[in-house]
Specification:
By secondary structure, the protein is mainly alpha-helical. It is built from twelve helices and five strands. Belongs to the G-protein coupled receptor 1 family.
Length: 315
């Protein structure tokens, strides 16, 4: 379909990926190993929590949900990146681009909501421990998770639907490693000033989650510092350390990427920031939740037979 002398764009070209002879194969192998670790690590955490009764607590329920989300969050972008690194056709259809944006941002918002629910869980566990079992019931955990998915998959839908109606002519080169709002909208042949309102809505979503988590942990830190026992303080800090690390990594990179409004970065920094929350965060999370978590390490040991089982012997 054409408009004047211009052809309507039906697919986009990722211009950031190297060809095989330029070193693309090296990046392909590295990214494939990282993707394999993301899937294996998060799947292991998901299975261990499901199978080990000792981990059937609200905190580990949310970690299980996060691992599930991380698998799909990485899968929305990384397989396409791998394809672009080894293929001469570094393209994606318009429909494919819209779907990638929708699922990437929906899963990202859902993950932010689940992290917020986790901060509330830790706040109640440490600041109100006597009422914790009656407040954080399995039913409430399920409701919080369902609400997170509902918000994540509903909030992005109007923006994706609007982008799908925009005309795209002329250039089809996306200067990013995946389909995202700003690089795609920059190619639209129409006024996209409405995106400022959308950016403001996203900013409110990000800041609301950030404030809830930050205020929860400020209060938690105050309560922990007032504990008379050094052992109690250490145990309380250790239960929150993993969540804080994930929170800082996830919200830090997201804030730098999306809370900038009219500010612009170079293509290099745009790509570097994208790599942080698209690849690095899902890659580090399994290590944060398992290697630095004694309960999780013990559960993995029990699953693979490295711990003493009831009626058995230690291997």
């Amino acid at each position: 379909m054409t408009s004047g002398n211009q052809t309507r764009v039906t697919e986009f070209l990722f211009s950031m990926f190297l060809h095989l002879h330029e070193g693309g194969l090296l990046f392909f192998i590295l990214l494939l190993l990282i993707y394999g670790f993301i899937i294996t690590g998060n799947l292991m955490i998901f299975i261990v929590i499901q199978l080990d009764v000792a981990l059937h607590t609200p905190m580990y329920f949310f970690i299980c949900v996060l691992s599930f989300l991380e698998i799909w969050y990485a899968t929305t972008t990384i397989p396409k990146m791998l394809s672009c690194l080894v293929s001469e056709q570094k393209t994606i259809s318009l429909a494919g681009c819209l779907l990638q944006m929708y699922f990437f941002h929906s899963l990202g918002i859902t993950e932010g909501c689940v992290l917020t629910a986790m901060s509330i869980d830790r706040y109640i566990a440490i600041c109100n421990p006597l009422r914790y079992p009656t407040i954080m019931t399995p039913k409430l955990c399920i409701h919080l998770t369902a609400g997170s998915f509902f918000c994540g998959f509903l909030l992005v839908l109007p923006e994706i639907s609007w982008i799908g109606t925009l005309p795209f002519y002329g250039s089809n080169q996306i200067q990013q490693i995946f389909c995202d709002f700003t690089p795609v909208l920059s190619l639209a042949c129409t006024d996209t000033s409405l995106v400022v309102i959308v950016d403001a809505i996203h900013a409110v979503e990000i800041l609301a989650s950030f404030l809830v988590i930050a205020l929860s942990y400020l209060r938690i830190i105050v309560v922990i510092l007032q504990m008379p026992s050094a052992e109690g303080r250490h145990k309380a800090f250790s239960t929150c350390a993993a969540h804080l690390a994930v929170f800082l990594l996830f919200f830090g990179s997201v804030a730098v990427m999306y809370l900038r409004f009219s500010a612009t970065y170079s293509v290099f920094w745009d790509t570097a920031i994208a790599v942080t929350f698209v690849i690095l965060a899902p890659f580090l999370n399994p290590s944060i939740y398992s290697l630095r978590n004694k309960d999780m390490k013990d559960a993995i040991g029990r699953l693979f037979g490295y711990q003493k089982r009831a009626g058995g012997v230690e291997r």
